[in-house]
Amino acid sequence: MTDLIIQLLSAMNFVLVLIMVAMGLMIIFGLMNVINMAHGEFFLLGAYTVVMTNRLGIGFWPALVLAPLTVGFIGMLIEYICIRHLYHRPLDTILATWGVSLAIKQLIIIIFGPAGLTVAPPLPQMVTVAGIEYPAYRVFIMAIALIIIAVTFYIFLKTDFGLGARAVIANRDMAATLGINTRRMYRTTFAFGSALAGLAGAVMAPVMSCDPQMGLGFFIPAFLSILVGGTGTLYGVLAGGAIVGGGDSLLSFHFSPVAAQVVIFSLAIFLIRIRPQGLLGSKKP
Amino acid sequence: MKSDISTIKSTDISMQRSVFWQPRPAWIAMGLAAILVLFPMTQNDYWIVQLTQLMVYGIFAMSLSLVWGYGGILCFGHAVYFGMGAYIYTLIVKGMIPGFSGILATSIAGLLTAVLCVSLFAVVVGYFLFYGRLKGPYLGIVTLAIAVIAERIAVDWYYIGGYNGLFSIPPFSVAGYEFITPIALFYFVLASSAIAYLLLTHIVQSPFGAILRAIRDNEARAESFGYNSAQHKIITFAIGAAVAALSGALFAIVTEFVSPTLIGFGLSTEVLIWVALGGKEVILASFLGALLVRTLETYLSELMAYYWILFLGVFFVAAVILFPKGIFGRWLSD
């Protein structure tokens, strides 16, 4: 019973952070038609911001603010330098952002070295959840992820910006003729999506080993979540993230991480074969 | 779906090009072949071995050129086929697959089985991907995930050598003759490159290749003419996989060793860079792209150490933005 609760809590942990990463990816993809291959590296940059603040001696907490700001700014820079030249050939953006990811990863290796680095847990104490002892920091991760997910939903469903963004997702050309500045929206969105990934990286840094390859471990499940859940709706990401993240996490416990990956991936492919638009998707891929 | 003016124009130009076929790439291919045939006379063994490996990568790049440049299938996991080819060949010639002994464990049988199994695997994968109507970026990420998982399986699977891979592969032999000397291996790989090149150019110049280009440029239009696009893509995928498996098996023959890095994400993305930089829409340009990037890598990675990959990444982004048809592609197709 205790084991089961711990497993469920860990799975929930992974799912919530995964949804954060996947939402950023989905928003960028839905709005701009750009698959951001560097999204995992934005996660990586967020994690290394924590490493950086620890080295500077200002501890973990400032990184929670610094990481999304820094990574969002870097995202904006990348949009300005390379992606905006490629809006008329969307398939090439996948190559360009992938080149960017290669460069970022290598830059991290040059600065911090290829080895895994660990960050001291900022909240070492335990709390009692559902009758068992559980690390307080893990609870904090879940809380912050829930808040961010709720805020993102609020922005996209209740604000003027969100209305404009949904208009662009539904029909880009129509939105542009109605006077929405799509270019500016692209830049804001790209920065916002990057910042989400950066924040996710920062909150996960103390519970993971920070190494230059960690981005891929989140990028692929995040993308699979979008694929399973369907594009064009934020609810799809919730469903996809829960299935992919939860399945992966629980199967890893009972079998091995590799077996879990193989099973989840095969299921995803099978699902795409029978339902190409994803579980809740409205748009055909 | 997107039929703005620019895509219509580019389609028309590429159609014209295939009608008025210019012989220039063929002449360049022949010149290159002549240089390669004479190469061993002028150089020492070190360079012969180097060039042999480069040509193996060149064949691999050509197979991706067919799949990506002509089939329009952005494959981020092409090394899966390369690695599977290498592994299957190795397991067979080392006699590690139960039931494969005697004539079934010879080099030729290994080569054929590797190519056949891998293309069958590609048909199965392609069936799910292309009838699932996956396109563009989706396809890219799904193939990427396949590569990552394949690499993890290879690392975890103790029987096929796990993390360390498999060593001491017996030399390639036909009817008692063993290809051991660098020169023999060089000409063997050169002949294989020539066959792969001729096969692939024949395919892209045939009516089948014309249909492929039509699907690549405008899938809806091609389908309304009655062509089954999924079927054509699966066939292309399988041929590309077969050639990639051939290059993988050749890699195992030349280096006498296979490891999980051959099957995974790293090599998959490397080949993508070679082909994109060389020019994905011209078979020969992809071959040259592999030769160029690998040669640069040999020199520059010593000179620049860690900064080489950083440089490659930035250079790649710049090339994607500035030369969408690749460095050699523009020059070879005009």
Tell me what you see in this structure.
- The complex is a heterodimer of chains A (285) and B (334).
- In chain A, helix 1 (2-32) crosses helix 9 and helix 2 (39-56) packs across helix 3 (61-81).
- Chain A contains 11 helices and 2 strands.
- With 285 residues, chain A is mostly helical.
- Chain A has a domain at 17-212.
- Chain A starts with a helix and ends in an 11-residue tail after the last helix.
- With 334 residues, chain B is mostly helical.
- Chain B has one domain (24-333).
- Chain B is globular, with a radius of gyration of 20 Å.
- The relative contact order of chain B is 0.18.
- The chains are: A mainly alpha (285), B mainly alpha (334).
- At the A-B interface, helix 4, helix 9 and helix 11 of A face helix 5, helix 6, helix 11 and helix 13 of B.
Comma- or semicolon-separated keywords:
heterodimer, A: 285 residues, mainly alpha, B: 334 residues
Q: Give the number of DSSP strands of chain B.
A: 2
Largest interface: A-B, 41 and 39 residues
Structural class per helix/strand content of chain B? mainly alpha
Summed up, the helix count of chain B is: 14
Short précis:
The complex is a heterodimer of chains A (285) and B (334). With 285 residues, chain A is mostly helical.
SSE map:
The complex is a heterodimer of chains A (285) and B (334).
Chain A: H1 2-32, H2 39-56, H3 61-81, H4 90-112, E1 126-129, E2 132-135, H5 136-158, H6 160-170, H7 172-177, H8 182-204, H9 214-229, H10 234-254, H11 257-274
Antiparallel strand pairs in A: 1-2
Helix pairs in contact in A: 1-5, 1-8, 1-9, 1-10, 2-3, 2-4, 2-8, 2-9, 3-8, 5-6, 5-8, 9-10, 10-11
Chain B: H1 5-19, H2 24-42, H3 45-70, H4 79-93, H5 107-131, H6 136-156, E1 172-174, E2 177-179, H7 182-205, H8 207-217, H9 219-224, H10 229-255, H11 265-278, H12 283-304, H13 307-322, H14 327-333
Antiparallel strand pairs in B: 1-2
